[in-house]
Amino acid sequence: MAYSKKVMEHFIDPRNVGDTADSDGEGRASNAMDGDIVVLGITVVDNKIVDVKQQVFGCAAAIAGSSAFSEMILGKEIEEALKISKEDVAEYLGGMPEGKIKCSILGPEALVKAVEAYRGRDRKVD
Amino acid sequence: MAYSKKVMEHFIDPRNVGDTADSDGEGRASNAMDGDIVVLGITVVDNKIVDVKQQVFGCAAAIAGSSAFSEMILGKEIEEALKISKEDVAEYLGGMPEGKIKCSILGPEALVKAVEAYRGRDRKVD
Amino acid sequence: MVRIFFDNSATTRIDPRVLEAMLPYYESMYGNPSSLHQFGTEAHEALEQARERTARALGAEADEIYFTSGGTESDNIALQGIAFANRRKGNHIITSNIEHHAILRTCAFLEDQGFRITYLPVDREGLVDPESVLAAIGKETILVSIMAANNEVGTIQPISEIGLMAHEHGIPFHTDAVQATTKMPLDVAKDGIDLLSLSAHKFHGPKGVGALFLRKGLDVRPLAYGGGQEKGIRPSTENVPGIVGLGAAIYLGISEMDEEVGKMTSIRERLIDGTMSSVDGCQLNGHRTRRLCNNVNFRFENVEGESLVLRLDHEGIAASTGSACSSRSSEASHVLKALGLSAAQSRGALRLSLSKMNDMHEAEVFLQAIVKVVEGLRALAPTRSSGSGCER
Amino acid sequence: MVRIFFDNSATTRIDPRVLEAMLPYYESMYGNPSSLHQFGTEAHEALEQARERTARALGAEADEIYFTSGGTESDNIALQGIAFANRRKGNHIITSNIEHHAILRTCAFLEDQGFRITYLPVDREGLVDPESVLAAIGKETILVSIMAANNEVGTIQPISEIGLMAHEHGIPFHTDAVQATTKMPLDVAKDGIDLLSLSAHKFHGPKGVGALFLRKGLDVRPLAYGGGQEKGIRPSTENVPGIVGLGAAIYLGISEMDEEVGKMTSIRERLIDGTMSSVDGCQLNGHRTRRLCNNVNFRFENVEGESLVLRLDHEGIAASTGSACSSRSSEASHVLKALGLSAAQSRGALRLSLSKMNDMHEAEVFLQAIVKVVEGLRALAPTRSSGSGCER
Ligand SMILES: Cc1ncc(COP(=O)(O)O)c(C=O)c1O
Ligand SMILES: Cc1ncc(COP(=O)(O)O)c(C=O)c1O
Predict the structure, then answer these.
(1) May I ask the CATH architecture of the domain B5-114?
(2) Residue D382 to residue D302: CA distance in whole angstroms
């Protein structure tokens, strides 16, 4: 199975790419075997993700997955965003070739860490 | 290897076909395995073959071989005609596919018997 | 000169629509289906469409279709593949003695490798008795392989009954459908078929491409190893234009089957009746009715097959004596022998095999020619009654 | 949109002259070469002409050429064929660890069957040391198989030296020349080759047809059994149009080799120099000079191969990452690993493979595109220096 049109759109023109340094929380996830990396930065207002920045190294599925995920979580409440799975990402992208679904897991993993970082910072601020 | 043009000519239009009943000597040779048969009748004047009649049942090589052989012996002295081998027949026909050369042996074999028959009759007349 | 092709069981002329479907895959969409880029994707899609079409023609699922290089390879993957992958379960295979050499010689090889093969006999008309399959099944049996229809005499086997027998004992059933494809309905579900071989050039597709249906879950060892194409069952860069051709040919063949089978059957009947009524000493080999719509097989007394074929060829009519694969050799046909014919009877065999591209006019031309050719050859032959020269 | 095909080691576009030579065998001369009639004879003659042409291209005799369905089958007949037919003489085979999967996976199968395989290492540039062949030869050795040129990195092996080593010990030498055919001179006599595999679609012939050169007197067991075609080494109705295409393609390829190799070499050099001078973090894989005229293989730091290929494809340029056969899978290339590259280094590999149909203008288009594509991908990537979120 080839990549869907939507995967290719996100791959060629990934959304929300940018420096995560100024985010409220930043998370990084990587896959030791493939060497894929996703870095995600979130800006949170009233428990809602109001801005996302992402950076990604990996195959087309990883790039499209990270892009799609950034789009999916934007505007969502944190708890809601954390419920999004790699399968949801694949579905959002109109399907993924078997064996490539795993490449969309790094977004959700990075979000968990970004939220931790954000909450950690929050706590410190308190 | 396919049959030569000359084989096909003799096969399509075999020479000297006819009833051998009125010949001076008639010989029959057959191949038990394939079921091929050649019958050859010779008319002899002054030890020379002045007329030949042949009949043949068999594959294209057998038919062409018998035809060619009848042409080759016509006008020859008996001893000379007896020297013609299946290889000579194959050569006369511009070559024969491997494994088909054997199909030209029946002519020479039938001639041996026809000559025997002719000489036997001769002797009786004496 | 007329050129009449009555040798369609040897091979067929490609359907112009099939060639047209293939050409873009030679000319512009020439990618390797494994490649990631656009050229590769186009080729990959073409492959999958052909797989769908082939599956649909057989009532199978697309992922049960494996493309091969022809009938011989499909038969070999089926037999060797099942045998070597299931050796632990048993070493016994059942087939018939009128199978194509692609089956029989593979079985002979498997015998060398320690397998035991039962070659079921056929009756005078070429039929395998399903009961004989049942009787042959033992604890060691791992495969039953019986052809759907015979390539020489056209006899159609009771494959669904045979499939049933095999399945009652949990044994997979393979059928060589190389001659049957598009000539008769085939449905792997209804007919109880677990493996099926076909070859595109027998139904107006290109030479050098075939398919094997393999029911999901079967364990099969490949013949060759390589880049993993066709799920490793048949690796090698896929013959994309050829496979597209196979897909187009089977699609067209199945869509038009009813009509074309009817047409071929009428021509077949005219050939049988016309020849038998105008030529003495002519018999039909095989079954009178349970036969492929496109097969006629005669034997002529006191006429030799090769001569017959070559004289007919001289009249512009292409036909064959035994099966094509052995026509350049002169062994007697194992099929005619299995039907109980003597070597002498087999020698006078003539096979006419039709396709949708033949027409009734060609049958009439043949009927003129056969009388002339048989008479011509018989006129050359010594009459059996004449004694030998020595005995006179 | 531009469409540039730089993936000619995966497959090539058919030469229009080759297709033209094939078409009559689809359209009118469609007989089965085994048939006795005119249709059969025409087909048979075409087959023998193609055999002559193939033999001439390799310095072989026509009766040493066997047509197959492609490189994979040729490789498998060579390896399995020699192995199983010569088991009594020994059970050891020598090959290299950068062979195509058609060799390596066949060797793995042979290991399962009790053969012992020596996989020779290569140096950083992909070269097999002929001395290592000599050192590996033992009393049990029955075959040496080393490819003429590698499909991923293009390294050309010293096959005539290797052939010599094998022959000193009376051992037959096989070479997989699938990538080498028409790209470099090959002469089975001079190069000491006893078996050689080639595949038509790699040199502008059709897919699904190949050839195996088998020196007279070698004992080889077939993979499949059937109607006896190709002297029983490769039975099945011959793919006449395909074989005619192979014959035409090899004839043209050899006639025009000098000129076309020169042209491809200049484009190759421009691609190597141009890319390496304009893209940072780019290295050449394989040997700088002992490489196929049509092969370029880079690795780019901090860029992932699939992304690279797909972004290039978006720019209209077809290229590949590992070898085509495995490009839909994501295993790291066994060839790059054998050259000593890390998994991370292999992941950034890009292969450009040329044909006579490419031109210098296309190289210039590529040189524009590669800068853009590499920069674009690197701009997405997190900079390595940035710590992980958790650690901040
Ligand atoms: C019944 C049957 N099986 C198998 C084959 C082999 O097919 P192919 O020659 O395409 O390999 C043929 C045709 O020759 C056949 O008639
Ligand atoms: C070196 C080498 N050997 C063998 C093959 C297999 O050839 P084919 O795919 O035509 O069977 C290939 C190409 O895929 C190759 O590059």
Answers:
(1) Alpha-Beta Complex (3.90)
(2) 10
